[in-house]
Amino acid sequence: MRERDLAGREGGFIAEGEVVLRVALSADARCRPSSLLVAENRLARLQPLIADLDPAIPVYAASPAVMDAIVGFPMHRGILAFGARPPDPGAAALLARAPARALVMVLIGIANHDNMGGLFRNAAAFGVHAVLFDHTCCDPLYRKAIRVSVGASLKVPFARLDEDEDVIDRLAAAGFTPLALSPAGAAPIAQLARPARAAILLGAEGPGLPEAILARCRTVAIPMAAGWDSLNVAAASAIILHALA
Questions:
Q1: Helical pair 113-125 and 233-244, crossing angle rounded to 10 deg
Q2: Of residues 65 and 152, more confidently modeled
Q3: pLDDT tens digits, residue range 157-173?
Q4: What value does the mean pLDDT take over residues 216-225?
Q5: Residue 25: closest CA among 159, 153, 151, 156
Q6: Domain ranges in the chain?
Q7: Which fold has domain 91-244?
Q8: Does the pTM exceed 0.85?
Q9: Of 46, 83, 123, 245, which is the most buried if we count CB atoms within 10 A?
Q10: 43: closest CA among 67, 27, 15, 24?
Q11: Smallest Cα–Cα separation from 88: which of 140, 123, 36?
Q12: pLDDT beyond 90 at 51
């Protein structure tokens, strides 16, 4: 069964590894597992964690060979969790819940799961209150994205924008100032004055943010050495989020 079929049919997610499992079982996780599959040789190490599980959550154990046969490839981490994703709250509700001083990240066209995971990891590290992303972005609850985020995508609140939803209008209605990160930004990051309610917009590597969005935002650039104009989007997000946080 392919993961995309599982997610589409069951509305679920697959998380792997001990670090991610610990995040998924933490008190502030938004997405929690409903069952576990663990290699027998990992059970002893995980026993303190498993002992605190809700008794209604089953834990299945198998030899590594059997587990590899079930999964279809060698599972070096030996830990899988399945859970149901929470309902999408919608952008308006998510922004309404943000505090008076808040930081939001908006993603446009992020189709790479490694980048999505890195963006969520940075969002958690720098206290982002919510992540919004458009309909062209990949799923932050895809197994690889969860793994790269070290579980952050299970904790940071997020909502997918409707295809016809105007994100700039949505941010303005909630009192957020949109700040667009671009190599051609009008102001260097060092001159950025943090608004009380700030929304940083990030686009895909290569095309970046659409011109129609850049034209409606304050644009910011990360100055670089001559002959180089851009960074990986996850790396760029860490720099701008650190400055804003």
A1: 10
A2: 152
A3: 999 999 999 999 999 99
A4: 94
A5: 151
A6: 3-84, 91-244
A7: Alpha/beta knot (3.40.1280)
A8: yes
A9: 123
A10: 67
A11: 140
A12: no
